[in-house]
C-alpha cells in the first residue's frame, strides 16, 4: 500500500498566548488554531477507529479525563475549556486530544511512537554543573502538519517549547530554568483514570521552578498511564519512569541520561508492554550509549548529531515507510534541544539529519 504523505507547512505555526487567567490563555490558543484543532482531531478519529475504539468510547474517555484533570488542577481544565471555546469546538474534543495517549492505550493496532532523548550534566572541576538535552519527537507522519511551537506567558512561569494542536504541553523549558523532555512508555495497566501524561507535562512546566519541585508535582499526581520525563534545571537532572504502579528514578550513565521507550527500573518493567517497542527501543538506546563512550558532548550544540542515523543503524533518525498502512508510518517530526541556563528551546522542523538544511526556531522563556 502506498500513500501520499501530508505536506509540512511552509512555515511552522507559532502560537503565542499571554494572560494571567488560564481560561483566557486557552481562548487565545484556540483562536489561533481554529483550523488546526479540527484537523488534528480528524486524524486522531481515524487512529481511534483503527484501534477499534468507538466514537462513544472516545467521548466517554474524554469526559472522564476532563474530570480527572479538573480534580488535579482546575486551572488546566479551565485552559482546555478556553481552547475549545477559542477554536469553536466541543470541549470533549479537546479533552480527547489531551488524553490521546491514554485513549490509544486501549488499542493494539496503533502502537505509540518512538522518541530518543539525551540529557547531559557536565561536571568540570572549578565550574558549576551545566545541563542540556536533545530529543527527537517521533510520531505518525499524518500529524506532521498538526503541531506547533508554543509561547505561553502569564502563569507562574512562562513556557516555550512544542506541542500538538489542542494539547496543553509536551517538551519545553520555563522561565525558571526547568526543562522537560517527554517519552511515552507502555505498561499493561495504562488507560484512563488519572491525569493524562501531556497535561502533567504542561502542569510541571508551568508550576515547577526546579527539578525537586517538578518531581514533587509528578509524585502528587493520580496516575493511570505511563511516560518518562527527563527533568533538568541549571545544575540538576533526573530521569523518571512514570507508571500506574509508581514513579521511579532511572540511573544515569556517567552523568548522562539516555531514554528511548522502555522502562529502566525493575518495578514498572515487570508489567511492561514489551511487544510495543522491543527490540527496537533497546537497540536505539544501546546504539546511542555506544556513541557516547566515544564522544562526550560538552555543549548543547554537540548533542543533535548523536541522533543522526542511516541505513543499517537503529532508527534514531526515524523515516516513514510509505508502504506501511495508517498507524504504522513513523517519522521524526521534530528535533528539539533544551538549555536551562539560557531558558532556550531550539526546535528543528524535521529529523536530526536535516540539520544544516533547515533553520532552527529559537524560543526563549525569559
TrEMBL record:
Q: Which residues form the Peptidase C45 hydrolase domain?
A: 132-267
Entries under InterPro entries matching the protein: C45_proenzyme-like, Peptidase_C45, Peptidase_C45_hydrolase
Q: What is this protein called?
A: Peptidase C45 hydrolase domain-containing protein
Amino acid at each position: 500500500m502506498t500513500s501520499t504523505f501530508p505536506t509540512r507547512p511552509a512555515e511552522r505555526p507559532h502560537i503565542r498566548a499571554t494572560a494571567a487567567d488560564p481560561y483566557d490563555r486557552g481562548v487565545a490558543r484556540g483562536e489561533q488554531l481554529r483550523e488546526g484543532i479540527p484537523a488534528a482531531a480528524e486524524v486522531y478519529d481515524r487512529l481511534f477507529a483503527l484501534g477499534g475504539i468507538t466514537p462513544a468510547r472516545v467521548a466517554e474517555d474524554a469526559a472522564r479525563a476532563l474530570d480527572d484533570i479538573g480534580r488535579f488542577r482546575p486551572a488546566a481544565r479551565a485552559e482546555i475549556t478556553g481552547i475549545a471555546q477559542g477554536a469553536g469546538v466541543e470541549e470533549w474534543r479537546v479533552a480527547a486530544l489531551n488524553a490521546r495517549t491514554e485513549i490509544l492505550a486501549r488499542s493494539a493496532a496503533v502502537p505509540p511512537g518512538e522518541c530518543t532523548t539525551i540529557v547531559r550534566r557536565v561536571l568540570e572541576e572549578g565550574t558549576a554543573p551545566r545541563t542540556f538535552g536533545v530529543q527527537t519527537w517521533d510520531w505518525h507522519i499524518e500529524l506532521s502538519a498538526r503541531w506547533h511551537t508554543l509561547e505561553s506567558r502569564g502563569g507562574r512561569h512562562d513556557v516555550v517549547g512544542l506541542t500538538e494542536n489542542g494539547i496543553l504541553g509536551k517538551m519545553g523549558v520555563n522561565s525558571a530554568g526547568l526543562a522537560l523532555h517527554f517519552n511515552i512508555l507502555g505498561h499493561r495497566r495504562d488507560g484512563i483514570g488519572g491525569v493524562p501524561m501531556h497535561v502533567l507535562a504542561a502542569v510541571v512546566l508551568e508550576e515547577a521552578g526546579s527539578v525537586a519541585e517538578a518531581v514533587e508535582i509528578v509524585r502528587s499526581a493520580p496516575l493511570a498511564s505511563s511516560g518518562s520525563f527527563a527533568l533538568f534545571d541549571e545544575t540538576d537532572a533526573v530521569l523518571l519512569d512514570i507508571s500506574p504502579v509508581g514513579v521511579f528514578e532511572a540511573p544515569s550513565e556517567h552523568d548522562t541520561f539516555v531514554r528511548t521507550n522502555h522502562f529502566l527500573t525493575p518495578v514498572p518493567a515487570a508489567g511492561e508492554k514489551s511487544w510495543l517497542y522491543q527490540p527496537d527501543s533497546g537497540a536505539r538506546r544501546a546504539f546511542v550509549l555506544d556513541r557516547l563512550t566515544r564522544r562526550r558532548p560538552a555543549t548543547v550544540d554537540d548533542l543533535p548529531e548523536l541522533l543522526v542515523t542511516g541505513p543499517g543503524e537503529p532508527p534514531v533518525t526515524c523515516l516513514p515507510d510509505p508502504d506501511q498502512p495508517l498507524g504504522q508510518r513513523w517519522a521524526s517530526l521534530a528535533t528539539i534541544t533544551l538549555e536551562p541556563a539560557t531558558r532556550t528551546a531550539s526546535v528543528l522542523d524535521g529529523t536530526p539529519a536535516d540539520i544544516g538544511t533547515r533553520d532552527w526556531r529559537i524560543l526563549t522563556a525569559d
